[in-house]
Amino acid sequence: MTMNPNNPLHAFAKWTSETNSDWSDVALDRARNAFIDVIAVIIPGTDEPVTRKVYDLATEWGRGNCSAIGFPEKLSAPMAALVNGTAAHALDFDDNFDPAKAHATAVLAPALLALADQEKLSGTQLLDAYIVGLQMIGRVGQGVNPYHRARGWHATATVGAVGSAAGCARLLRLNPEETAHAISLATSLAGGFMSQFGTMTKPLHSGLAAAGAVQAALFAKAGITAGTDTLHGTTGMGTLMVGQDVEELREGMKGKAEHGQTVTFATTDIGNPLQIEEYGLKVKRFPNCGSIHRALDGLLALKAEHKFDKNNVKEIFVRAPAAHLRNLMYEKPQNSMEAKFSLEFSLAAGLLNGNVGLKDYAESNISNPEILELLPLIRKEYVEKLETDFYTQVHVTLDNGETVSTEVAMPVGSTARPLSNEQLWDKFDACVEGYLDKQIKSTVKKKLEHLADENDISSLMAVLS
Predict the structure, then answer these.
(1) What's the CA gap between 82 and 98, in Å, rounded?
(2) CB 33 within 8 A of CB 424
(3) Which residues of 132-157 are buried (b: 16+ CB within 10 A; e: fewer)?
(4) Rounded Cα–Cα distance for residues 45 and 385 (Å)
(5) Residues 6+ apart with CB under 8 A from 265
(6) In the chain, helix, strand, coil percent, each to 5?
(7) From residue 2, how far is each of 7, 88, 120, 224, 413 by CA, in Å?
(8) What pTM was estimated for this model as a whole?
(9) In the chain, which segments carry CATH 3.30.1330.120?
């Protein structure tokens, strides 16, 4: 293959393969924290029906020498990534990544953990591949968003698979040509629609993308070749997964790119800015769709400030970007998965309890009459503006006629309002309660805290399995 620096696929591959690994402390700390957070949510995610069903099939499809967190059977690397990726997204408690408009770590971390487990690689190599893979998830996302996501593609499943394949190629130390084939191959393994939200298939998207990323890198390592125009060509991802009006959309984004999204694949300065430093990750405070978080943060802040409860609220009115509210299609959810995509249910639970946690989305709580009676109080307005151009507004009208209001630009857990280390470990403890005994939890926490010092990731995975 002749590498063309003007071809974004080749530019991405060259940077992925050859960039130095002298990462800043900020980058390394954020990468480590991403693994702490994703493993925290994978552990209870293994108990979800979708994960158990996927694991049962994975044991039939491919045994090997890799661990699936929470399960006894060893699996092949793609099947371990499939199971762990599904578990990572099963509770919708995993992080968001703005440049990609995707749940990045739920795809990237399971893919890398599977390969690091198989190859017995170190924590330092794992963190390096995560930083590189996240950069590529962001760069691919910036090349197709915001319209890719706005038009109904589940970017976790599409952008996540392609960028994570680059991370896997980095971990396997593939050369630039092999890396280009891995990224290109991944476009043929990328797919998923937002019409699957609220069903078991949504978390399965994350598992499929993680497995696809592993497969793409291993295919490339084995010498399987792929096309050179699969990102920017007329029949590439940038046109087919955005739309035939991509040129018009691209013109419209000039001067107002959101999270670096230009609907154009970069060919220069691929590593500048480093996205884990520039944008960071949104670590979730609540186990529901991230499109709910600004409104829920606002409601809980108003509740804490003004000391109201369910008995003296007449109405909760939310004005939010339409792209957020379109994700929240279940006004009267019938099950736990639908409830995670319900603004009404989540705000009602927050009004009732003063917080929202995993227990609020238990199947037994979905028909809670105290929550159901509050659903009619909640009203919403779709605002056709970008999320950076319009902050989410929350207006609460009390029974005395007074209206108290706030607006939220960025949710708790974002780089603008990050969780402290204490809050991150509190989330970990809450997630693993009832799943890990005291000794195992202590061992896992110590290994995660000092992830860069792990000589062999398979020892961590063995404890987790």
Answers:
(1) 23
(2) yes
(3) bbbbbbbbbbbbbbbbbbbeebbbbb
(4) 34
(5) 8, 12, 139, 140, 142, 143, 231, 232, 238
(6) 55, 10, 35
(7) 11, 38, 33, 16, 43
(8) 0.92
(9) 290-408
Q: Is the distance from CB of 182 to CB of 156 less than 8 angstroms? A: no
The CATH number fitting domain 8-278, selected from 1.10.4100.10, 3.40.50.720, 3.20.20.150, 3.40.50.2300: 1.10.4100.10
Q: How far apart are CA 356 and CA 300, in angstroms?
A: 10
Ranges of CATH 1.10.4100.10 domains, the chain:
8-278
CA-based angle 385:390:392, to the nearest 5?
120
- Look at residues 296, 323, 263, 232 and name the one whose alpha carbon lies nearest to residue 141: 263
What digits encode the pLDDT tens for the residues 231-263?
999 999 999 999 999 999 998 888 777 899 999
Token pair for 392: 């989410």
Q: What is the pLDDT of residues 164-210, one digit of tens each?
A: 999 999 999 999 999 999 999 999 999 999 999 989 999 999 999 99
Q: Decide: 379 and 315 in contact? Cβ < 8 Å.
A: yes
Cα–Cα distance measured from residue 228 to residue 4, given in angstroms and rounded to the nearest whole number: 10
Please list the residues that pair with 393 across neighbouring strands. 319, 407
Q: Give me the CATH code for the 290-408 domain, please.
A: 3.30.1330.120
Handedness of CA 52, 58, 64, 68 (dihedral sign): negative
